[in-house]
Write a structure and sequence with these properties.
13 strands; disordered C terminus
Length: 337
């Protein structure tokens, strides 16, 4: 008979932590890491950015998807790091430390937890945030898996880029991908077995399970003079509407520019009977950046123009347009979806 897998209920908290700690990335910015009641973090800038996010089983991910894909601990660890690193990036900063709370059922395999720690480290290093450490956290027991990550970051002397600074005449630009994570979600929830997917379709699943936020782009945008910026986590239209509202402007998107993001999604759209542009406009979790820049400046590397900022004309007020026409606000809502 196959040997029973080792689960977290077979280990004490100290024994489980002893398996996790060696897998976590360390950097000089954390002066005192795991082992005491609190971590001690350097703040040479005198200011600190902070954000927090949670992933919950069957709300933000499934352990086994409809198409047969099994979410690994590595996937969950990677995504937990990536989405929090992206929030600091969206302010024009760089992450310096994470603290992680992991709640899990007692039957969770220890191997899954080790893979989770590996995913955290792989994302931090692989996405280019090597100055960020996992400074500590908490382990708990619950009926379902839940991961909460709080992230601290530095602005390195520059001003934070807020959502509220866009001005009429600015250029609207994005960095990163649009719609790929949403297309991956649709494939995961489809009846088409994961093992039957072509490599280009599997890469869309990768974008959902292990997103790749453009972490170099945020600080570069801040130094280049971005007037407003935010992470695209809930969809271009929904998040664009938030930025427009904060700045009291209208974002007018160019449909031709947006269609370039739909090209790589067409095979998945054809397979599922979907419209690729709906993923571009409404799909979240790519964790790219939506930003505005003064007209006439050269956009920083990684950004492409997708529209312009217009003044509000009452009615209908601030919001999002596509070629001057009102766009329905679609996207992910944590409480409605």
């Amino acid at each position: 008979m196959p040997e029973e897998p080792l689960t977290v209920q077979h280990l004490s908290e100290s024994e489980l932590l002893a398996r996790i700690f060696p897998r976590l990335h360390r950097s000089p910015g954390v002066l005192l890491g795991p082992g005491d009641d609190a971590a001690l973090i350097a703040a040479p800038d005198g200011r600190a950015l902070i954000s927090i996010d949670t992933q919950t089983q069957d709300q933000d991910f499934r352990l086994e998807w409809r198409n047969g894909y099994r979410t690994t601990g590595f996937d969950v660890g990677w995504k937990a790091a990536a989405q929090n690193l992206s929030d600091i990036n969206a302010m024009g900063g760089s992450a310096t430390s994470l603290v992680v709370s992991l709640t899990m059922p007692p039957e969770t395999p220890v191997e899954w937890v080790e893979a989770f720690a590996d995913g955290l480290t792989a994302a931090i290093v692989g996405l280019g945030a090597s100055d960020c450490s996992v400074a500590g956290g908490d382990l708990g027991r619950g009926r379902e898996l839940a991961v909460t990550v709080a992230v601290v970051g530095t602005l390195a002397g520059v001003a934070p880029v807020l959502r509220s600074g866009a001005k009429p005449g600015d250029v609207v630009a994005v960095a990163g991908t649009l719609g790929r994570a949403a297309a991956g979600w649709a494939l995961l929830e489809s009846d088409i077995p994961f093992d039957n997917l072509a490599p280009e379709l599997r890469s869309l699943v990768d974008n959902q399970c292990r997103p790749i936020p453009p972490l170099a782009a945020g600080p570069l945008a801040a130094r280049t003079g971005a007037t407003a910026m935010m992470d695209i986590s809930d969809g271009l239209l929904r998040d664009g509407n938030r930025l427009a509202g904060a700045s009291n402007v209208v974002l007018d998107f160019d449909p031709v520019a947006l269609k370039t993001h739909a090209v790589s999604l067409e095979p998945a759209a054809a397979l599922l009977g979907w419209e690729a542009m709906r993923w571009v406009l409404g799909g979240g979790e790519d964790h790219g950046l939506l930003a505005t820049f003064p007209a006439g400046i050269q956009l920083p590397q990684g950004f492409t123009a997708i529209g312009s900022v217009q003044a509000v004309v009452e009615p209908p007020g601030s919001g999002v347009r596509i070629a001057g026409q009102t766009a329905d606000t679609v996207g992910w809502d944590h409480f409605a979806d």
